[in-house]
Amino acid sequence: DQERRGLGARLVRHVLAATSPEAVALWASVAGEPLYRALGFVEAGRIHVHGGRVGAAAIRASAPGAGRVAVHAGDAGGPITAAITDDLAARSLGAGAGERRWVLDAFAPRPGTLLAAHPDGLGAGMAWDCNGQRHVGPVVADTDQAAIDLVAALAVGAPGIVRVDAAAEQHALRAWCRDNGLDERRNSPRFVPGPD
Predict the structure, then answer these.
(1) How many Cα atoms occupy the beta-carbon half-sphere of 121 within 13 Å?
(2) DSSP-assigned states of every residue in the chain
C-alpha cells in the first residue's frame, strides 16, 4: 500500500544526510534499483546470492582449514565478540562495503549469531540463523582460502538452508559454493553514492 509514495526516497535522503557518503554502500533488490539510480547512486559491483543444503562432512572435506577457525556464539559477549566485530567493521569499511558497525552491534549479541576469526588473522565473519536458514556474511578475508575456511566453519551445523552472499570478484568462493551445493539464486547490484 505504501509503494510510490516517496517514503523510500525520504528515508534514503535522511540516511545520507546523517552520515558520510564514504560510509554508505547497499545492495539493491530488483524493485529498489530504480530508486537508488534516481537518487544518484552508481553501481560499484555485484553480489551473488548462493543457497542450498549442505552436509557438515562435505563442508569439512572441501575446506580442511575450516577446522582451525574459531567460531563463537555472539550472545556470549565479552572481549572475543568485541574483537571480532571490531575486525569485521574495519575490514568491511576497508573493502569498500560501507560502515557496518551498527549492523554488527545489533546482530552480534542475538542468540543464534555466530562470529568467526581466522586463526592466522586473515579475516573474520558472522552468520545468523533465521526461519530455518543460516545467513553467512559478512565475511571479509585477505585470501580466497581464508574466506572459504571462514564460510565453511560458519556453515557447519546449519539448521537447514545455507545462504552465502559473495562479491562478483570472489571467484574462488563462488566456485566453492557451487561445488558444495550452494547454487546461485540471484545477483544484485552494489550501489554507492555517486559524485554530486
Answers:
(1) 0
(2) --TTSSHHHHHHHHHHHHS-GGG--EE--TTTHHHHHHTTEEEEEEEEEEEE---HHHHHHH-GGGGGSEEEEGGG-HHHHHHHHHHHHHHHHHTT----HHHHHHHTTSTTEEEEE-TTSSEEEEEEEETTEEEEEEEEESSHHHHHHHHHHHHTT-SSEEEEEEETT-HHHHHHHHHTT-EEEEEEEEEEEPP-
Count CB neighbours of 89 within 10 A.
21
CA nearest neighbour of 31 among 194, 189, 168: 189
Give strand pairing partners of 80: none
Cell of 180: 558444495
Lay out the sheet containing 133-141: strands in order across. Answer: 26-27, 183-193, 41-52, 161-167, 133-141, 123-130, 113-117, 70-73
161-167 and 123-130 beta bridge pairing: unpaired
Please give the grid coordinates belonging to residue 1: 500500500
What are the pLDDT digits (tens) for 107-163? 788 888 898 888 888 888 889 888 889 999 888 889 999 999 999 999 988 888 999
Instruction: Specify the pTM.
Output: 0.80
CA 118 distance to own-chain centroid: 16
